[in-house]
């Protein structure tokens, strides 16, 4: 018969931790941390006498950290605070376990005393049952019920004790490792962050406890302070640093998901509500109050560092509070912030742009400018708030006369971080109340139209992300980028003047930047080269659409499943590449991407199934090269005002081509926008760079520009001495042959090449294309009776293709050159 569990049957491991002493010691360490050198020893003695079973994990570590050398007083203080926080956390775990152990001991004893709730009726004892039988039935029932209850309660107790031991082990590990950033964050995530830790370790300790009432109180204090001429008190400086830590937490959640805590959001809401109150009783309806703060501070004698801290904290707090993704948004923002958004997307009571808005932008720029260098470079505003800021800057070109360009640049550096907002503006999903469907063009003209002192670097943020997201693994990001790219390509090249403007977007961006260098009416690439660079980066992400066959139609998007698609008209392609080519550096980067695309495809000629496939590939490759030439020719024509300048521009073209080749080795696998080319990832750097040096653009620059000082006429390409074509022929043949030799399935080995002509091989390897192009070597006995020049080398390499590949390659080269000249 099974035995009935007794009071001793439940095994409850005992905890000897003196929770009260642990908490007392931890609290005193925290309170006295400022005088750790004087009081640390006394407190440590008390901690050492605390009766705990894990003494070696806590007390000794605390002693070690709390009694470090006098010269390391701050380190000792931090270590003691860390020990205090860890011990307090452990004390909490010990208290939790001890309470559970006591509760379950009581519950078990009660269960034993009550016979585990078994009654005669529940056990099945009947009135006519003999007493000894009834006793056995009752005992069996209590044994079964007790065993079941014991198993359940023992499992809970065991799990709690294991957790308690894990907490102790964690405490020991944390104390041994010290307050590393990871340990600080882990402790904060578990609710162990205190103001003391924040004061000692700053933002690394996480966000200290903040409440709505604290935000209201701090706003009241700060409003009075900024009218004073004194430095920030230490405790108030820490409050501003706490706001920066909160902004950093919002930044992390924007990237990783999640929202700020309710108390943290309440703090921000009440703080900004308090800072947004009218500054004078005589004007209780005063608006835009927040944006007066930078000017008030600038007029005070508060130290510059303190002024910047105030502005940075408020700037970071504004962005965090504006973002619904982390729990902020319109319902929490103060009136001054909501007014700006309502100008464009709500029921604003004044025009979208006014002198008042200009003053607001100046103030905002100072807030955001002060954030630089504080670890908030990726902090975004909410979608609508970011879009409203960008629209306000697009409206504000005339404010440059007010000396606000620096502030507008700082705003754009922040407002264009939100890619959803950028995409909504580019595609017209969010529209300007005055421009409606023409809003995307208004944004592009307003943001890209001024000649910015930073070369358009901040403004380029509106589009700089497109090339990156073109190859994203996230379909939503790819679709967002494709829709934005299509809008960018077509809006900037629109040749029709709409009702809002007297000149077309294409005319505006191609010649409205005034006299710059050799240009009387410079294009965007000269006025804002950083923007042209981002334009080229975006185009490089969609080379397949620029090289697609010409169907003679207009540009058309077809976004949706299974993937985003677009067709770009020839005018759109030519004009956009021309705008990119307006900057030498941007043209160089885009040219390198196009060249690599062409050569990467050509190197896989052995995989073309038939001559028609080769012809199709050649048409696409030739299209890209033709667009490059056309783009440069257009820019060159615009700048050609006299012979001297014509020669200078021709030389620039040669330099552009040479620079593109020289940089290829370093950037061959890294250019953004072409990473989606599957073949590129498998290309050997040496193979591509050898071929790259001899693309048509480079050879053309060498032969024509350096000798004549002018660009060649189209008919010049038909001459038999067109060296650029011959050099390109060799480059493609060489690249293909290199690939075939590497492929064990191709059937061609280095021995096959050597058998055709030993001069093509050196040290068991195919000689570099660069050597073959420069060679003029005597014939080898038993081989051909000619010197080995690049034309002959091409012929010899052709021999290996025989009927299998030569037809495809010939078709490729013919179609490539025909398509290239067609541009």
Explain what the structure shows.
The chain has helices spanning 19-31, 36-48, 55-66, 73-113, 120-123, 131-177, 181-189, 195-201, 212-225, 234-256, 262-275, 293-298, 304-322, 335-345, 355-370, 383-395, 405-415, 419-427, 439-448, 466-469, 475-492, 505-511, 524-527, 529-540, 543-546, 570-581, 584-602, 611-639, 643-667, 685-692, 696-708, 723-742, 750-756, 769-774, 790-822, and strands at 556-558, 565-567, 761-762, 765-766. With 823 residues, it is mainly α. The strands form two sheets. Strands 1-2 form a two-stranded antiparallel ribbon. β3 and β4 form a beta hairpin. The longest helix has 47 residues, at 131-177.
Largest sheet: 2 strands, antiparallel
Number of helices: 35
Physical arrangement of strands within the biggest beta sheet: 1-2
Count of beta strands: 4
What characteristics describe this protein?
823 residues; mainly alpha; two-stranded antiparallel sheet
List strands and helices in order, with pairings.
Blueprint: H1 19-31, H2 36-48, H3 55-66, H4 73-113, H5 120-123, H6 131-177, H7 181-189, H8 195-201, H9 212-225, H10 234-256, H11 262-275, H12 293-298, H13 304-322, H14 335-345, H15 355-370, H16 383-395, H17 405-415, H18 419-427, H19 439-448, H20 466-469, H21 475-492, H22 505-511, H23 524-527, H24 529-540, H25 543-546, E1 556-558, E2 565-567, H26 570-581, H27 584-602, H28 611-639, H29 643-667, H30 685-692, H31 696-708, H32 723-742, H33 750-756, E3 761-762, E4 765-766, H34 769-774, H35 790-822
Antiparallel strand pairs: 1-2, 3-4
